[in-house]
Amino acid sequence: MSAAGMGEAAEKTWFGQPRGLTILFLTNMWEQFSYFGMRALLVYYMTKQLLIEQTHSSYIYGAYTSFAYFTPIIGGAISDRWLGKKKAVIIGASVMAAGHFMMAFESLFYFALATIAIGNGLFLPSLPSQINDLYGPRDPRRGWAYNVYYVGINIGAFLAPLICGTLGEVYGWHYGFGAAGIGMVGGLIIYLVGGRYLPPEQPRGKAAPVAIDGGSAVNYRSTYAVLLAIGLSVVVFRGAYEQIGNTIALWADTGINRMVGDFEIRMTWFIALNPLLVMVMTPFLLAHWRRKAEAGRERSPMQKMAIGALIIGSAYGLLAIVSAVATAQASWIWLVLFFFILTFGELYILPTGLGLFARLAPPRAGATTVGSWFLVTGAGSLFAGFVGSFWSSTSRPVYFACLFILTVIAAGLLLALDRSTRKVEATRAAELDAAHES
């Protein structure tokens, strides 16, 4: 953006942020609603309606979710090189909506899944990579913006099973899938109507080295090396974090006393705690970070991510102690406390990591770099599956202690990368300054 354009974006604000962030927030919220709404019904639909055997349906589910995380790296490259971010979002959202509506027809089941995953590949990296262009290179709100954006993800994830899941189970699967498709169309309409508040399209093509202050051109090899190292550290972290949908769910089912008087708390309600707590806790955390920034004591992104990993590690440490001390089933209160601690740590690391990848992206490679963050997410999910395979052969205290150790290792790796990351981030900011002045 030009300096004038950046100033204009900064002046027109909603809730103290550029108006474009609200548009991206709402678009993302409805996309997540459609994605998680369909995913909440998928296994039940396969086993109960299509009568696919459980083992085979699990393989289909795993293949679909993995494909949905790996396509963004390809879609991001297409967005940066040829389509541009705005066209990629519009095409991706349209393709995903078509895929959701295809789910209403049993004969199109596999084609519908592939269509949604392909559309997701264009949409997922192209939307958040626009956040970076709403701010000046020195604007402190740029890092916090991804925490705001992250709330949209969790609102959609929270509402999806309540609306799409209820419609699917009570009135019929196709009503649930239809609601997911309507949500995706709603997100697309918001994006199109609010397009005037979004940043102008950046030049497309292969990332080219940029000279700073008349000096030699910047070499992006160090950037890619730092991104790769951060990605590997996050994969280690996600090996522990992703257990909330795997072995933690198993422990909640068998190792937790979920009775409150004569009422039994549903296991899935505990999982819903996570997105609910994200919505509740984010405003307080952002207010805390704002005070730190105003006092000149804000931590670097890598320090925040390391702190987040350690906080999540303490949540697993709590479970190690509880499972070791409990003579039978542990109280459900401990599981609530676990999710409270885990969510607090999650807010330090996951949205910060997404924002960091966007800020470190070389010129004309924003969507591709953001796509690589989702590639890391997919790789972390695969690693979490490997870690989860030890659940049956390991005692509960030892298993949770191992998850604690994984998070400590990840925190150490992230802290070790702090100096290198700061250097690359400073270089990117200098490039943006030079571009705005030219």
TrEMBL record:
<feature type="transmembrane region" description="Helical">
    <location>
        <begin position="307"/>
        <end position="326"/>
    </location>
</feature>
<keyword id="KW-0653">Protein transport</keyword>
<keyword id="KW-1003">Cell membrane</keyword>
<feature type="transmembrane region" description="Helical">
    <location>
        <begin position="148"/>
        <end position="168"/>
    </location>
</feature>
<dbReference type="InterPro" id="IPR000109">
    <property type="entry name" value="POT_fam"/>
</dbReference>
<feature type="transmembrane region" description="Helical">
    <location>
        <begin position="370"/>
        <end position="392"/>
    </location>
</feature>
<feature type="transmembrane region" description="Helical">
    <location>
        <begin position="58"/>
        <end position="78"/>
    </location>
</feature>
<feature type="transmembrane region" description="Helical">
    <location>
        <begin position="174"/>
        <end position="194"/>
    </location>
</feature>
<feature type="transmembrane region" description="Helical">
    <location>
        <begin position="332"/>
        <end position="358"/>
    </location>
</feature>
<feature type="transmembrane region" description="Helical">
    <location>
        <begin position="109"/>
        <end position="127"/>
    </location>
</feature>
<keyword id="KW-0472">Membrane</keyword>
<keyword id="KW-1133">Transmembrane helix</keyword>
<dbReference type="InterPro" id="IPR050171">
    <property type="entry name" value="MFS_Transporters"/>
</dbReference>
<keyword id="KW-0813">Transport</keyword>
<feature type="transmembrane region" description="Helical">
    <location>
        <begin position="21"/>
        <end position="46"/>
    </location>
</feature>
<feature type="domain" description="Major facilitator superfamily (MFS) profile">
    <location>
        <begin position="20"/>
        <end position="422"/>
    </location>
</feature>
<protein>
    <submittedName>
        <fullName>Peptide MFS transporter</fullName>
    </submittedName>
</protein>
<dbReference type="InterPro" id="IPR005279">
    <property type="entry name" value="Dipep/tripep_permease"/>
</dbReference>
<comment type="similarity">
    <text>Belongs to the major facilitator superfamily. Proton-dependent oligopeptide transporter (POT/PTR) (TC 2.A.17) family.</text>
</comment>
<dbReference type="Pfam" id="PF00854">
    <property type="entry name" value="PTR2"/>
</dbReference>
<feature type="transmembrane region" description="Helical">
    <location>
        <begin position="224"/>
        <end position="241"/>
    </location>
</feature>
<dbReference type="InterPro" id="IPR020846">
    <property type="entry name" value="MFS_dom"/>
</dbReference>
<feature type="transmembrane region" description="Helical">
    <location>
        <begin position="398"/>
        <end position="417"/>
    </location>
</feature>
<dbReference type="InterPro" id="IPR036259">
    <property type="entry name" value="MFS_trans_sf"/>
</dbReference>
<dbReference type="InterPro" id="IPR018456">
    <property type="entry name" value="PTR2_symporter_CS"/>
</dbReference>
<keyword id="KW-0812">Transmembrane</keyword>
<keyword id="KW-0571">Peptide transport</keyword>
<feature type="transmembrane region" description="Helical">
    <location>
        <begin position="267"/>
        <end position="286"/>
    </location>
</feature>
